Amino acid sequence: MIKKEILSAIASLVWFCSPALYAQYVVDTSVSINKIYGVNTVDQTYKVDGYLVTSWDEPDPTYRPASGERVYENHHADQLMNDGLWVPAFEFINIIGQRQTANRRVVISADGRVTYNERFQGLFTTTMDFRQFPFDYQTFVLMMEPFSYEQKQLVFGTARINIEALENQALSEWQMQGKPQARVSRSDYAHLQSGILSHFSRLTISIQALRKPDYYLWRFILPLSLILVASWAVFWIEGFSERLMTSFTMMLTVVAYTFYTSSLLPRLPYTTLIERMVIMGYVSIFAAIIVIVFVKIRDEKGRPVEYVIPRCRVIFPALFLIAMSVLIGVNGGL
Amino acid sequence: MIKKEILSAIASLVWFCSPALYAQYVVDTSVSINKIYGVNTVDQTYKVDGYLVTSWDEPDPTYRPASGERVYENHHADQLMNDGLWVPAFEFINIIGQRQTANRRVVISADGRVTYNERFQGLFTTTMDFRQFPFDYQTFVLMMEPFSYEQKQLVFGTARINIEALENQALSEWQMQGKPQARVSRSDYAHLQSGILSHFSRLTISIQALRKPDYYLWRFILPLSLILVASWAVFWIEGFSERLMTSFTMMLTVVAYTFYTSSLLPRLPYTTLIERMVIMGYVSIFAAIIVIVFVKIRDEKGRPVEYVIPRCRVIFPALFLIAMSVLIGVNGGL
Amino acid sequence: MIKKEILSAIASLVWFCSPALYAQYVVDTSVSINKIYGVNTVDQTYKVDGYLVTSWDEPDPTYRPASGERVYENHHADQLMNDGLWVPAFEFINIIGQRQTANRRVVISADGRVTYNERFQGLFTTTMDFRQFPFDYQTFVLMMEPFSYEQKQLVFGTARINIEALENQALSEWQMQGKPQARVSRSDYAHLQSGILSHFSRLTISIQALRKPDYYLWRFILPLSLILVASWAVFWIEGFSERLMTSFTMMLTVVAYTFYTSSLLPRLPYTTLIERMVIMGYVSIFAAIIVIVFVKIRDEKGRPVEYVIPRCRVIFPALFLIAMSVLIGVNGGL
Amino acid sequence: MIKKEILSAIASLVWFCSPALYAQYVVDTSVSINKIYGVNTVDQTYKVDGYLVTSWDEPDPTYRPASGERVYENHHADQLMNDGLWVPAFEFINIIGQRQTANRRVVISADGRVTYNERFQGLFTTTMDFRQFPFDYQTFVLMMEPFSYEQKQLVFGTARINIEALENQALSEWQMQGKPQARVSRSDYAHLQSGILSHFSRLTISIQALRKPDYYLWRFILPLSLILVASWAVFWIEGFSERLMTSFTMMLTVVAYTFYTSSLLPRLPYTTLIERMVIMGYVSIFAAIIVIVFVKIRDEKGRPVEYVIPRCRVIFPALFLIAMSVLIGVNGGL
Amino acid sequence: MIKKEILSAIASLVWFCSPALYAQYVVDTSVSINKIYGVNTVDQTYKVDGYLVTSWDEPDPTYRPASGERVYENHHADQLMNDGLWVPAFEFINIIGQRQTANRRVVISADGRVTYNERFQGLFTTTMDFRQFPFDYQTFVLMMEPFSYEQKQLVFGTARINIEALENQALSEWQMQGKPQARVSRSDYAHLQSGILSHFSRLTISIQALRKPDYYLWRFILPLSLILVASWAVFWIEGFSERLMTSFTMMLTVVAYTFYTSSLLPRLPYTTLIERMVIMGYVSIFAAIIVIVFVKIRDEKGRPVEYVIPRCRVIFPALFLIAMSVLIGVNGGL
């Protein structure tokens, strides 16, 4: 006798957990972002530290306090959810791994409003377009969906996004552009039931940010440009061997820059602005070597074209300026 | 008295967990892959983020809802499984470490259909063949088996595989080839019982992808080719010392490329296409040094062979073109 | 009957967990820091290992011992908190990830004083200003707030901070400046309820430390200065080609220092002192190349200005000293 | 009354856990290795992914099924073990960190045979001897012992080891030598009780594998040899300065190889074969510099020994061949 | 009624956990170290894998077996400790993060002796003095204290330390010096109660080890010395430009060694022996450049001091030998 009762008591605890979802829950969300950090251009990821606040009206009065509101922290909140308070699981669609939640809390007010609140940290991913790197801007995105409940059961209501005012914006590589946006949409999946599409409510938060290119200007573009300009000195040098060896040294240096850009960016199937500059660099020096050898050959065959070299003193800088303009123009046009 | 009853109540909970498997369960699976990322050619691994959906008919009516279907998320699903709902453990054969399951869910419908669903992320491994690198294609594989139940108890039924339409396919290094495939087979083990083979049902998902070689063309093959071409300038230089020192510089540069390829690929017991190019490079420059020293020796001994050098101006480029053709031809033939 | 009683017994355990917070709790804190280590200038993070001690008066006499004090360690402390002893959750605002707590303890004395004590280790972040690097000082900050309870419910009282006397201060890169400070303030949030601001009590601990620049002086500034001084030797060299090639070698070396600084510091949108030195270095060598080519051009055109070179033997060192003075003066002025 | 009964019921669950070990348990083991991977020569570690199967006769009939066998997976197996089924803890002696067990299972048959089975992944360590590197072979070892039960209580019986047939053995750096071995021995410890030795049964699995040296031949030994051979060209160069500068360049290159080997191997208190080659390389070039300067000094003092240089054209290659033979001979002799 | 009884039964389980500590517990310890590995000189950390055995007399007879001894492994040991067996928490003072305990065990004998035993692995830190690097010795330290119980409640009794005989001591970088020591002392803290000092018993284990410098001799000091010696060849070279360019090349090489030492050691506020060698190296080459330019200037002004160069052929080696002797003498004196 008593055995059965205890068993059914335990079982009834389990049955609580899945309330009959007669009506659609409307979940209001508010995301407050403390920090976007660890932007990794090679892996195309970024870390987000923030607070997620979700709230809805719970028709079931079981857990309502008599008055005011009651706060359940961490393990107490888990206990309450295990006992049967309905709190849906949310998942970030574009997360890598799991989010960490250092603290979480459930607040229930006497009028049946349930608020679930957590501080989360997670590694997120988005497709980044580096074609204009380092003059690019990127959109940091967080996409959230309920894990189990379809749109007819759970729909996102009002959505607010809030970025903490950063104290020292001047010291960061990224500058936020415009206001962050929170958008509620619907996404459809076909993977659960063969024939039927499932519809889920989706919350998309997007923050647009512009990269400050100062770092790359001072540490990359300026020295590379100086090296390119210095490489033209080869046209004033006398002597074939001296010309060639200087050109070789310059070329190897510029090629070394290729390796440097490898550590900045992922293995992209396209070239970035900064790489087009490097390629332009070594192709230009290679052209100089071709010119030098060509002059030498003609010279040996007794048909000197020594006048070619002085002309190059003008042609190479001119071509460089044109190429740079095109690069920047193409950039502007995109 | 009461002690015994409580004990047996708790014990009976335990006994539930292993239903007498009279009939064979047929498990239908559907794998939906969000993202294959972090392809690491050095470790021959890749990360997979996806959803695993498995479903079967449960003859035991204990946990069926009266009508419709009931959803159990995360801890509620764990409770249900601990209480006795049969959900088999699956393992990925070719996983490294454990898979992470941020969310999981059990759905039971009134007609006895049980659906287990999880979002998983894991690091998988497969043997990759890099002999044509960077013009290679690879097959990303996921192999799944039930951990405990042999084929007579559990067999995979229909298997579906679904890849999320990637928004910006143009920005990724890999291009999917054909349709992904899901195949059910049988694998045999002898490690449990000495004499007897165990038969397990195995689900194999394979996705073939082609590497886009642009990155390696622009950042590796083009500069390496230019350096090789530039190295032939040595045959126009006058003077033994100048020739030698220029050759040495070029040779050291090409050798430096050896180190660079080390960071791209694992320590393979065979050479890749890109490494064959590098080896061809420094062997060709070494040959030039041999020629230069040979000419010098003959010259010192009073038997000048100075005509050798001009001939090399033709021979070396010709040999290079032939070697390249062979390399590419061999590639095509494989 | 018995089922209800057991259920309500279990439920009453749950209800205990959120005491009616009629009065404001005053929480006294004491933070004792063992070690600040792993200062990572690239990520702008540092690890802190310390003890957190918080204590308050608990009006509810349920858990008080009859006399003396009772100690609950680790799992026993967790049990007590799960059973209903009120211990608020604290969070570090500027932490990355979660803090690890190897051991924790609750002490309750007969007069109702509750002390919660933990050893924690965490990775913290703060905005660092590297403009004077490596002659900079940084402030290591820990900001702590209660996770759920607003100021009207929980306020920080006295706050003590204590740094373990380090045995071998001479062997560390950082030297503590002045006394560490603990400050209690109030911070306001608007993200929970739409219209209403929440007020939380905040404890801020700040420790100021000066970097010892010896490492950078010996391994960076001294060799860089020697290379710069050595580069002036180019004005004594005879011959245009020799001058140019020497300058090129020096310039490439100084540019290589750019790469080295990349591994020391994050991608900052401003230049640090040490980078301004490097930039000054390669710009100065580039200027020398310009002068050398200019002299050559005038020479070719028959208007020799060979007297420019000897003058540079004085001008370059003089400009270098002025630039260094300005750099240091600007530093002092900041 | 009832309180006592419940308490003693709970307590009796605890008492079950440590069966009176009157007789010695004989544990048969079978280890099946899926993959040995991540061989890290710098840390002297390797990762092992495999299945561990242990089985023994349990005299206590409490948990036996009426007929056939019963399978308990993961949490159900844990519950059973917590309730009192005796399953000893095993530890790997040479593991780094803990092993991960993605899935585990207990099978109990009607005749009292208990089988515990887990899939494990772990990082293992062994002392590696690199004196013949890269022509070395290593022995990958797994040592397992029961954690608590001494030999009189638990002894390993039959031990089987099984390596999965690798599909593409040709693509791996290591080649298995002979058959893997499983050996049961006894190990003695004195650290528990002061005066008395404890005896534990130990299972040692060892797999011998030969490194395929192809990678190091093509990417290291071939280019290094070519550079050494090319360095002899210095004896054909005319002019003291040219000779010296060429030698310097070669020497610096060979020294650079020292840095490269640092990334391959740990900081060993002995030299490996590959390092002896490098040391031989730079010492040989240093000797060439000494010869060149010596000839120059004698020349200045009016006692020319210019005949030394041509002789070196023979002596250096000859010494190199002898040194190589000795190196390989010593290798063979070890 | 029954509700109260159950509640008080559960509560009484909790009360057990903190026995009235009338008498002082004397805890005997024995630490057995398997392996000290992963010595990281940059982070000044090392990993320790070992067994910790602690034992004491428990006056409370509740958990004693009737005869012999009873073994509780892992979860069974946890259950026992949760139920009320007093096992104090220990913490390592100088640990980084938490220790991992793969297995743990409690043994209780009929005479009331309780033995707690665990295998632990942890990352430890100590201040290392690298001033004599690579001829330094270091002391690996483990400091352990009870987390909660002061000296009047818990004091360490006999302490034994045991290092596993390493099979292949010859293959390791470190050589143990003398016998490891275990020392019990008292440490005082003021951070818990404002005015009153707490006294804790502390166990300090220290193992002294000498670094074998072979690795650094062959891969660092020998090539660096050869380069320095080779750099004196500059005093035999004819021609100002050749002298300068050779000196520049050598100087840049030695400066490159600065970068190499950065990867070996942390950013220390003092110079190590190996760095003083490098600094001596580039300062010496810089001095040579100064001499060369000085001679050139005097030469141009018509006051040749060409005799300076031959003298340098003696002065530089002599100064080098003196500096080396001083370095080694200072080393010996420290």
TrEMBL record, chains A, B, C, D, E:
Answer whether the UniProt record assigns the keyword Nucleotide-binding to this protein.
Answer: no
- Would the keyword Transmembrane turn up in this protein's UniProt record? yes
> What's a single GO CC term here?
membrane
How is it placed in the membrane, per its record?
Multi-pass membrane protein
Q: Where is the Neurotransmitter-gated ion-channel ligand-binding domain?
A: 25-181
UniProt keyword annotations, A-Z: Membrane, Signal, Transmembrane, Transmembrane helix
Per the UniProt entry, the signal peptide is 1-23
Q: Spell out the molecular function terms from Gene Ontology.
A: extracellular ligand-gated monoatomic ion channel activity; transmembrane signaling receptor activity
Give the matching SUPFAM superfamilies.
Neurotransmitter-gated ion-channel transmembrane pore, Nicotinic receptor ligand binding domain-like
Where is this protein localized, as stated in its record?
Answer: Membrane
Record field: transmembrane: 216-237, 244-265, 277-295, 315-333
Q: Which PANTHER family did the record assign?
A: NEUROTRANSMITTER GATED ION CHANNEL (PTHR18945)
**Name by which UniProt lists this protein:** Cys-loop ligand-gated ion channel
Which lineage is the organism of this entry classified under, starting from the top rank?
A: Bacteria, Pseudomonadati, Pseudomonadota, Gammaproteobacteria, Vibrionales
